[in-house]
Design a protein that fits this description.
It contains 14 helices and two strands. The protein is mostly helical. It has a two-stranded antiparallel ribbon. Helix 2 packs antiparallel against helix 6, helix 6 packs parallel to helix 12 and helix 11 packs antiparallel against helix 12. The N terminus is likely disordered.
Length: 356
């Protein structure tokens, strides 16, 4: 088994670093993401919003009929849809931070979830409903696609990943003022960097190894891929180094960290798609588990498009989606393997593709 070295990636992109263990001597890089001041409370609010939306979607597993309008209200934080009044009164929402061209895509899946839950029938080819394998139950549309995964994992990409790598680490936000300190936030540039970090859902002390308990969203999936591709510590170090470089007004090192974060986070996303394709291969004869894991693979694969420096082309993403097909009940083992080979080849993960 080849474990991708943290030293290989970090030392190439961070001037003066040695194998991910030491910070550049000209920077004061803390061991945890702890800066004074810092603030990414808005990102935490949106993480909590998606968590409550996913919890509501999961009530369909027990037979509850979902309300599509309620899901869309949670998406837009319209009409106090959350059980947590703090979320309702936050002035924040997921919809206005979602990649604008895909807002309708996610709202469409919210309607599909409501329609599928209303059948009260067991899921099968051509019939929406719930399917059970062992102790696990999932809601599927008539083609075996799981709205929960396409909404939750998709919004991890279209909001959290997109906002972090494309918006807050983008040129406009990184050209913000870096001299006037805003109480409780730091400079505008420092605050934008903190907001990018907030969408990772990383704990401040996120390095390797990290206990699984309590991790959510991207932190959970990064941690899951860490044993094979070694991603926790390099990404944590890059975020800490970039923030320190802003404080030192060293924009060359900051920009190196941006490039590294985009590259490495994209690889985590691709490796997670491969992970779920492997699970689908292992469960090829179980409609429920196969369709559940294919839904996750599809969501993570499509998330790759949100990186402004992505290695995958839009044409290759269409090829990936075409290989998975419109109907998961009718997918072949060869199609899943071809989709895995496509992603693994683009991201040079061929040596570890079958063990992710």
């Amino acid at each position: 088994m080849r474990v991708i070295s943290a030293c290989l990636f970090v030392s190439v992109l961070i001037v003066g670093l040695g194998c991910g263990d030491e910070a550049a001597p000209e920077l004061d890089v803390p061991e945890t993401y702890s800066f004074d001041p810092q603030d990414y409370s808005g990102q935490t609010i949106r993480l909590n919003m998606l968590e409550e939306m996913a919890t509501y979607l999961k009530t369909s597993h027990g037979g509850a009929v979902l309300d599509g309008d309620k899901l869309k209200a949670m998406f837009a934080n319209d009409g106090s849809p959350f059980s947590d009044s703090g979320l309702n009164n936050s002035g924040k929402q997921l919809r206005d931070k979602c990649f604008s061209l895909d807002q309708g895509y996610f709202e469409g899946w919210m309607d599909v979830a409501a329609i599928s839950s209303a059948t009260g029938l067991p899921a099968s080819d051509g019939q929406a409903g719930t399917g059970t394998s062992g102790t696990s139950t999932y809601l599927f549309d008539e083609n075996g696609k799981e709205p929960l995964q396409l909404i939750e994992k998709g919004l991890m990409g279209a909001v959290f990943y997109y906002q972090s790598v494309a918006v807050y680490l983008g040129e406009e936000e990184m050209n913000a003022d870096n001299s006037t300190v805003i109480p409780g936030q730091g400079t505008a540039m420092e605050h934008h960097w903190d907001e990018a970090f907030g969408y990772t859902a990383f704990p401040p002390d996120f390095i390797s190894p990290y206990p699984e308990s309590g991790l959510r969203f991207w932190a959970r999936y990064c941690n899951g891929r860490d044993p094979v591709i070694g991603c926790n510590q390099p990404l944590s170090l890059a975020f800490r180094t970039g923030r320190s470089a802003i404080g030192a007004q060293d924009y060359s090192i900051r920009d190196e960290q941006i490039a590294f974060i985009r590259q490495r986070w994209e690889e985590v996303c691709a490796a997670t798609a491969l992970h779920y394709l492997n699970e689908a291969i292992a469960a090829i004869g179980d409609d429920v588990v196969r369709n559940h894991t294919l839904s996750e693979a599809l969501a993570f694969g499509l998330n790759l498009k949100y990186n402004p420096e992505r290695r995958i082309s839009l044409e290759q993403l269409v090829q990936f989606e075409t290989l998975l097909g419109d109907n998961f009940y009718q997918i072949s083992l060869d199609d899943i393997r071809s989709a895995r080979d496509l992603i693994a080849g683009i991201y040079q993960l061929e040596e570890v593709a079958e063990i992710l």
